[in-house]
Amino acid sequence: MIRAEHGLPLRQDYSGMRPGNNSNDTNLSMFDQGSDNRSFFQRMSGQPTPIGKILNDQEG
Question: Where is this chain compositionally biased, Polar residues type (predicted)?
Answer without folding.
Answer: 20-48
